[in-house]
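Recap for those who missed Tuesday's class. We walked through two folding examples back to back. For each one, the amino acid string is listed first and its predicted structure tokens come directly after. Nothing is annotated here on purpose, so try labeling regions yourself before you check the end of the notes.
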Amino acid sequence: MITVHLPPSVRFILASASPRRRELLAQTGLSFEVITADVIEHEDSSTDPKEMVSYNAALKADWVGERNSDAWVLGADTIVFIDGSALNKPADRNEAAQMLRRLSGRTHTVYTGLALRKFDQKIAIDRGVASEVTFHQLTDEVISEYLSKVHTLDKAGGYAIQEHGEMIVAQQTGSFSNIVGLPLDETKQILTEVGLLD
């Protein structure tokens, strides 16, 4: 992979603590730093999922961007959506197991909001991406085994498709990287639009 080293006068910041987003953004080849936004995300499960991820992505990007007005800042937020409500990060293993039982044998949607900011140029770009995931029918034994192998408490919906996904996922449509937490094609498109990538 070729790393795109920006000129010293150009800073790029990922406004996210997620190691998965960090790994995915690195695949673009862009050099960047990480600053975690000190914000309280909106996690009301009854909120429209597209609005929720858009709001949270912008919240993170705006918080970091306001404090680094010379930098390009990328914020992102991902949720799992089923039965008209959002499944956020589980509080504990029991809640993660409940989420997996709810998703078992069914299709759900994964939404990610993207927000790119550059405050000194008053640039604000917001995008949203959706993918669908269908789960196998999961027994309690499979759920227990999966949770013993994968730490899911920091993952929306209580699962990580990139970690032992074959145990739980029957099929997926749309962006795979979106399900992981950062839709790469759409991210690259935004970065190309503003001239950060060729």
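Example two. Treat it independently of the first, because the proteins are unrelated.
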Amino acid sequence: MPPVLSLCRRLAASPRFDAAILVVIVLNAVVLGAETYDSVVDDHGSTLHALNDVFLGIFVVELVIRIAACWPRPGAFLKSGWNVFDFVVIVGSFVPGLRENATLLRLLRLGRIVRAVRLLPDLRVLVVAVGRSIPGVASLAAMTLLLIYLYGMVGWVIFQDHDPANFENVGQSMVTMFVLLTLENLPTYIEKGQELSDWTLVFYISYVLVASFLVFNLFIGIVINSMEEARAIEHRREREAASLTADPMDDLHAEVEVKIDELRSALDELQARVKRRR
């Protein structure tokens, strides 16, 4: 293997290299923030512009190093979504139409700051977890909206004459039910409902138990499950990245670890089937 490629692999796998790039990203963020002050731009505008070019040059070198670290499989670099994001943000800065557009150029520079996410494993897990939780959260939101509508209709039937300010129509009733998700002013609503009938307690208590406690606990469960999936994905991604940048002699070790994980998943699935049959 050429010494240059070997050096690129060591750099790409080095935590110190990631830390150095993270420092550059932070400095870039400071410069971008300084550009929002007119007085600073008037006094040091050329210096800030030069610093942005220097940062871009460093990011280009980093990109080349990470691509070279995947040799002789440079296409594997694009298998990672984070790598694709880095490539688009950095290469986009050289597109003629974008460089002349100040707004788009600033957005691309902000994209370089977002690149800090890939260098912080815990933050990367959180971002992946947010993405993984979207389908579950969307389903939960649909269920919550249906629940708010049902209770809003019931509330309108019960309180439309007694409390028109909060239950004048189904729209206002749904707004009231949505506010009650946070338990805000719940004692006030209960007290006003008891002026009509003590049975209104059933309406409010059932709503609080189902909509507030149950929905929020389901939301927490979705987030926790997404966090576990994100950690598993991140662990697998780190292994794949290590197999790309490490010595080819270590590929066999990486493949063995993948097979072990597959066997564990198959065993967990088999145990789940046995439990269901019982």
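Answers for example two:
The chain has two domains: 3-119, 123-246.
The two ends are 57 Å apart (CA to CA).
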